[in-house]
């Protein structure tokens, strides 16, 4: 049995911790909870970039240091897709062509498929590991069409949850708890990140 548990987090500004002092997002409190769950020290590795899209994340995981941390990880969290949605919306506002959303969803699906296949190939010799795919919340709940957009992107992310991959629903809790109380601008505040960490923990208990 390994004396330590290795947690690797990859993704966008959520993984980076944007919106909180010193970038303290969900990864640190989540790692603390992992130590309690697995009863061993947790080594945490974070590779994140604010504003990154799914296509840019594919480039990030080509970095040998990122690949090494993914290879050694017992658990991996992935936050991606939010900037794909925001980028698609900005393009939509230039000509109001609904095909823009369809193209963005198809590209996200392709990018996630490739991303996860890359991770699986890195870990082909490992008997057990967990990937948690973090869904999107709605940063603009006051806009009438925003929930549909978020739901459409979440359907793509959720479609990849099988075997050792878990989808983490953030849209529901952020909606029920009034996301305006959980956000600073479009990013979670400390309370919002605690909600994310809590749902990551809950999903592990459901898995067992």
Automatic annotation (TrEMBL):
<protein>
    <submittedName>
        <fullName>Lysophospholipase L1-like esterase</fullName>
    </submittedName>
</protein>
<dbReference type="GO" id="GO:0004622">
    <property type="term" value="F:phosphatidylcholine lysophospholipase activity"/>
</dbReference>
<dbReference type="InterPro" id="IPR036514">
    <property type="entry name" value="SGNH_hydro_sf"/>
</dbReference>
<dbReference type="Pfam" id="PF13472">
    <property type="entry name" value="Lipase_GDSL_2"/>
</dbReference>
<dbReference type="InterPro" id="IPR013830">
    <property type="entry name" value="SGNH_hydro"/>
</dbReference>
<feature type="domain" description="SGNH hydrolase-type esterase">
    <location>
        <begin position="9"/>
        <end position="195"/>
    </location>
</feature>
<dbReference type="InterPro" id="IPR051532">
    <property type="entry name" value="Ester_Hydrolysis_Enzymes"/>
</dbReference>
């Amino acid at each position: 049995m390994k004396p330590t548990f290795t947690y690797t987090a990859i993704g966008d500004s959520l993984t980076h911790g944007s919106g909180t002092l010193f970038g303290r997002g969900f990864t640190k409190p989540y790692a603390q909870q992992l130590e309690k769950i697995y009863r061993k020290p947790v080594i945490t590795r974070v590779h994140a970039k604010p504003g990154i899209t799914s296509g840019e994340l594919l480039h990030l995981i080509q970095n040998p240091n990122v690949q090494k941390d993914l290879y050694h990880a017992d658990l991996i969290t992935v936050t991606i897709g939010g900037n794909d949605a925001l980028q698609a919306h900005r393009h939509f506002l230039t000509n109001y062509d609904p095909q823009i959303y369809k193209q963005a969803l198809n590209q996200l699906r392709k990018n996630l498929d490739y991303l996860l296949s890359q991770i699986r190939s890195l870990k082909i010799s490992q008997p057990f590991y967990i990937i948690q795919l973090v869904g999107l919340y709605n940063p603009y709940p006051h806009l009438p069409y925003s929930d549909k957009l978020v739901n459409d992107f979440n359907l793509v992310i959720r479609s990849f949850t099988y075997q050792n991959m878990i989808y983490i629903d953030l849209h529901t809790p952020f909606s029920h708890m009034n996301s305006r109380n959980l956000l600073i601008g479009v990013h979670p505040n400390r309370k919002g990140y605690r909600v994310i960490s809590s749902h990551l923990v809950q999903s592990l208990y459901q898995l067992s």
